[in-house]
Amino acid sequence: MPSNNNDDDEEQRQPLLGSRSLFSISPEKLMELIDPKNLALLKQLGGIDAIASALHVDPSTGISDDLIQTRQSVFGQNDLPKAKAKKFWQLIIIAYNDKTIILLTIAAIISLGIGIGQDLSPDHPSNQPKIGWVEGTAILVAVLAVTLTNAINDFQKEKQFQKLNAKKEDKRVTVLRMGREQCINAHDLVVGDILIVEPGDVVLADGIYVSGYNLGCDESSATGEAETVRKHPAYSNDCFILSGSKVLEGVGRVLVIAVGTNSFFGKTMMALRRDPNATQRQENTPLQLKLDVLAEQIAKFGIGASLAMLITLTIKYFVTTAHEHKTGAEIASTMVNIVIQTITIIVVAVPEGLPMAVTMALAFATTQMLKDNNLVRVLAACETMGNATTICTDKTGTLTQNQMTVVKGMFGLQQFKDPAGVQEWTGRVDGKIIQLLVEGVSVNSTAYEDIDTTPIKKTFLGSKTEIALLMLARSLGGDYVTIRRHSHIAKLYPFASKKKSMTTVIGKENKFRAYTKGASEIVLRSCTHYIAANGEKVDMDKKSRQRWERVIDKDASEALRTIALAYIDMEPDQYETMCENDDQGDDGFPMEKLVLIGIVAIEDPLRPGVVESVAAFRRAGVFVRMVTGDNIKTATAIARNAGILTKGGIVLSASELRAMSPEEQRQRISRMQVLARSSPTDKTTVVVRLQELDQVVGMTGDGTNDGPALRLADVGFSMGVTGTEVAKEASDIVLMDDNFNSILKALLWGRTVNDGVRKFLTFQLTVNVAAVVISFISAVTSEKAESVLSAVQLLWVNLIMDTLAALALATERPSVDLLDRKPASKYAHLINYRMVKMILGQAIFQITINLIAVYAGHQIFQVQDEAVMRTMVFNMFVFLQVFNEINCRRIDGSINVFKNITHDWIFITVQIVVILCQFLIVTFGGLAFNTVPLTIEQWIITVAIGALSLPVGVIIRVIPDCCGIERRYNEDATPLASYSRLNWEGAIGHIRNQLRVYSALRKSYQTPPPGSSNNYHARRFFSEPPSDSASVTIGRDDNNNNVNISNPIRGYGAIVKTTRSADSSP
């Protein structure tokens, strides 16, 4: 016993960091820190510094590259094992697991048994071939073909979705390695890495908070509590960062301690995979749900028809054979044949291909959309986007190229008006201004240079605005890396949408200095001083403030983004007071008593094709609105350049929108084309108000706080390049190139998916009705109670109209013609008036033609052989479907059904395959399909009759809407404000403003000032006024803005010129 006690004491004295590997801490011990959060263990291990030492990492410089593979082998890689995909044989079982297919198999086996029994019976005539087994075998082969085809489609669909999921998981993170910030793939993240997190990041590994500022995380994915959890780099439970949590605010550096399957998120995901009760949920889109309901209704029709057929044929058989002496085997054989026919009717009538058509269309569309830089995260968004009625888009990086350059600037009231004039400008200002500019830009920024080693190329990563400012600092001789290295950052306030600014506080000798940059008018409002050209601090009086404001307005009117740079020096006691206020929950840096360094104007040109895309959206009936954080003049100029702002449109600032009641907001938003100085909350308000007006809203966003608006919108678009992970997680579609033009492609693909499903629906319902009616009538009127179309023939038709038709009609590529119609209402029915006309018209035509051939074909075609006649009817029926499928390519009333058919290679391939298979079936499939070879003349006749579907389709399309049904059930979405209406209202407003100008000038002409002479009016019109300018307030325009004339008025021509320019509507 004493010995054991000594051993226990010895074990307790062993350091906890002792380990058997190169690293003096085990993965298991690190995992114990997180799940659950174990502060006591962290203290036992010696704290963060001891863990960093055990992992051979310096938190200030990060790890080196030489131990990365070793770290991966010891602590694991940052990815999860791929989930086991379904094997092909499993997909076959799933495809076969259909009640009607199983019933048909049972009936086929019974038929096969009876047929073999008859063949082996001694009563079988010796001069007839033993082919009783053929029908049962043929049905089994047909069932196998249908099952295999469905399984192959599912297999292809799974592979396509796997590729999409792999693209979704392709994420990048920023780490500190060898003293340099690097952007790496998330899969390359290893234990020991110093992970740099910013607002919007989703943390992809477990870690310990090392350093940072105001870091707050959303850990609701782990805890279920949707609240901000503050983090502190000390011995606190809040120093642990859980994988899967989202960074909401602040910045920080995190020591990674668990990755992949060892992380909290990884273990949760692996547990879900192992849970036998956790079944994979099938993602049903709204269109699939509608089709499921429709398919159920059609299935009821098919089952009713088959039951009626079963009862009728059974009664008829027993009535007609009542006086005949039939053996039990003969009765059983006949009844089995009747049952097979009725089950086949169910197989044909039940449209199991409808959901498959949606899945196939979505699988094809999402794969192709990825090539068009649209990563679809939510399948429903693809089809919803097709009927979007309004698009609310950001400006920066979406409409513009996000390639920002400082083109103008004013510091010390001295301007440079182009980048080439920067060096000359430096000679006109004191060096202190340049020093403040370079230091402020360098420390008050999170952008950095990343080195791509293949080839060696330095590229900036981070905010494009900050990159433009760093490039300006570099042109002035500044080295931001050196400045950051030698600066002690005491506190950092990341960019906040509410204040439109970012502030960094650094320690300087015995005081602190805060550098601020942000929206020019907001920062200027907080400034009480500015730096003059001589480097002295000067009071911001009214005259100088107006001069700064004029610079901002002028640059903004030229579609330039203006950024103000300012600073303030603080004594230690002021800094302590500010920190205490932060701890008490004050919202950000106190923007007051700042010293303005200067203002820069940044150019971000429009993307090529944006103007054309906006015009295309307008043509398609989609209203485009720009929601931006820029000031109202910059936003107005860019919106006008992009074609978004038109006559009659309204420009609002976010402050004006917030001041309105909900009802006023709904009224104004209907005509609003630009919202300036907006915050993420304003985006959410816009989405809510538009949805209250029954609009289908597409919204773009890239920031963390854009998440609620993106999730609330009918289709949320996040930015793949500049967007945060939080925004991407909240969105439905990720724009991989951040390009507005890609949204137009998403609209086209959405409409293509909806149209593809409707085309398939039109085709399938036509075949359903025709096949069921023809089979029923021919079987009931037949002496042998047999349908003119055998069970195997109907199964081939079912294959044509389900799998092959879905492949042909649901995989067409989009056409620009789709932009020539308005979006459909979200309440529109799946089957519209045009589709009903085509379905009923073609079905009646096919039924009539086939029944005429059944009952009068012998006389018409001069054919006496019953087998030849039945084969001709079968061939005729199939080719009616082949040509009707071409007919169904257009469901918009267009006459030319062959338009762009050469571009649709899948459709052409499917048609060729069907025709070849039909030729082989007719020529060589006699035993299985009950066919005989046809002559060339008979082939020409049957194909020509099938081709009649095309002219019949033209006739159906030109049938006028006599009863006004189409107008009454118009499926187009009702626009809130059409562009034509806005143009009219804008023109009326223009005339109204001209009349106001004329009235004001006439009034001033008719009312001379007291004591004036009689020739006052002559001098007023034909001589130069004594003052250089005249200001007349006329009233308010359509945008509720004052209409002022503040121009020199010289003679009558000046009045005309002023009148023409007085209209402030866009």
UniProtKB/TrEMBL annotation:
Molecular function (Gene Ontology), one example: ATP binding
Superkingdom of origin organism: Eukaryota
InterPro entries found in the cross-reference section: ATPase_P-typ_cation-transptr_C (IPR006068), ATPase_P-typ_cation-transptr_N (IPR004014), ATPase_P-typ_cyto_dom_N (IPR023299), ATPase_P-typ_P_site (IPR018303), ATPase_P-typ_TM_dom_sf (IPR023298), ATPase_P-typ_transduc_dom_A_sf (IPR008250), ATPase_P-type_domA (IPR059000), HAD-like_sf (IPR036412)
Any Gene Ontology CC annotation: endomembrane system
Major location category of this protein: membrane
Keyword Membrane on entry: yes
Membrane-crossing segments per the record: 91-116, 136-153, 298-318, 338-365, 760-781, 787-810, 831-855, 867-884, 905-927, 939-959
SUPFAM superfamilies: Calcium ATPase, transduction domain A, Calcium ATPase, transmembrane domain M, HAD-like, Metal cation-transporting ATPase, ATP-binding domain N
PROSITE patterns: ATPASE_E1_E2
Chain ranges of the Cation-transporting P-type ATPase N-terminal domain: 44-116
Function according to Swiss-Prot or TrEMBL: Catalyzes the hydrolysis of ATP coupled with the transport of calcium.
PANTHER family on file: CALCIUM-TRANSPORTING ATPASE, CATION TRANSPORTING ATPASE
The family this protein is said to belong to: Belongs to the cation transport ATPase (P-type) (TC 3.A.3) family.
Protein name: Calcium-transporting ATPase
